[in-house]
Protein: Serpentine type 7TM GPCR chemoreceptor srd domain-containing protein
Amino acid sequence: MDTFNTYNAYTCLVMGLSSNLTLAWLILKGTKDEMKHYSTILLHSIVVNIVYLVVSAIVQPYTLLENGNLLMVQTGFSQHSSRIVNALLAFLWFFIFSIKIYSLSSQFVYRYLILCRKIEVTSRLLAVILLIPNIFCVIFIIMIILENEAFDGHDALIESLFHINATKHSFGFFVRKSSVIKFYSDTFMLATLALIYGIIAWCSYKLRKTFKMASQFISRSTVHELNSQISVALVVQAILPLGMVFIVVVYMGYAKISKAPQSSSAITLVAILFHWVPVINPLCTLLIVKRYRKQIVSLFKCHQESPSIAVSKATTVVVKR
Structure:
């Protein structure tokens, strides 16, 4: 599992950087000036994706769950470091992970204000929109720090629960099912996720309603089409991590009720698959947004046609002689 997790993290890093940087280039260079205003918010998710990929490649975490007891194993560069260093990196990963989830609503609120309310979003207002979800992230991380029991000498318990050698594996986060704070952190996570996705659903409904009304009075212009496609791409970006989190929550609840032994492998698989979210999200955007898709295809066509063009030019020169 450790070796597979390492290769998985590095593969996601390479593919994720390629897809995210390609999308960023298309937004900055391949989008007309009059349409950049509507697609710039995608750059925020790109930055978060890249930071998440880099931190995940450094920490390389995967999660083990046994009967409600949770352990994060780390196979990255810090695996031979002290428990404090591993804990700090675990908290950093949790923080970036929470930002990635909670900041999804910021993109929908931004587009709702611009497209539905016709409000000019200043730099200060944009900063407020992006920073408000981070308050939830800070509260969540404080709860994670308080419930962490990795420093309390539970190595023997960890070995008996998860059947791993605590001296050969690095971990910076461990919480028992009997933890009181764990109940509050899980409740807080579920409540805030419900709020975040409630905002996303409401903004998506308003955006769809606005696009539908606008299509009755104007032809399907390039800007209108771009906005509609970006909205679909954002919905896909929101649904993908929600599906992963939903699977984790369901299995955690199932493990607490039935104490099923297969829950650990299921949670571990979901944790590893979650590394692919920042890889798949920009690829979905590149496929959904027609303008970006066409530019990618045109780049490949130019690359394929360039040798034939060169031969044609050379032949023309020879004929003239």
Notes: The first helix runs from residue 2 to 29. The longest strand covers residues 61-66. Confidence is low (pLDDT under 50) at residues 308-321.
